[in-house]
Every structure is written in C-alpha cells, then in structure tokens.
Amino acid sequence: MIDHFEIKVAAFEECRAFYMNALEPLGIELKWSDENAAGFGLSSEPNVRFLIEKGVSNSTCHIAFSALDKRQVTAFHEGGLSSEVALLTP
User: Choosing a second label site near 48 at 20 to 30 A (CA), which of 25, 32, 63, 79?
Assistant: First the structure.
C-alpha cells in the first residue's frame, strides 16, 4: 500500500491551514511543520503519511509504496520496467 506521499504547493500557509482543518475529521493531524514543509499522519500513529512542501504547484509529486523487504523492492522495480513505459528508466 502507499506508505507516504508529498506534493508541492504554491500557497503553503493557506494549504497547511486547509489540510489541518479538512483532515481532522478523518483522524489525521499535523505531526510537524516548519516554514517550508508540513507532515500529516493518523492521530493513532507517529508516522507522517502526507507531506506538503512549498514550491510551484505543477511540480512533480513523490509517492512511496511500502515493501516488506529488498526482494519486494526489486520485484516492484523489475515489474515497472517490464511494462516498457517510456517514462521509466533503470
């Protein structure tokens, strides 16, 4: 499953306030924040699962999937490469 993901936002302060309010009913809270980034996670666990970072809104995003071990990481990578999608590089 998805372990964590990060997006860039142009209006950082406004987005941090928005997500703090919008995610609270879902049991998601602000775990940490500084002037450039903020991390959110479930109230019931210490992990950060969703990050916002100050940047341009059309920047790339970062999505990380969980793996139990190196074998799964290798299989995931090989599976992606075998799809022959031009975006992926070894």
Answer: 79
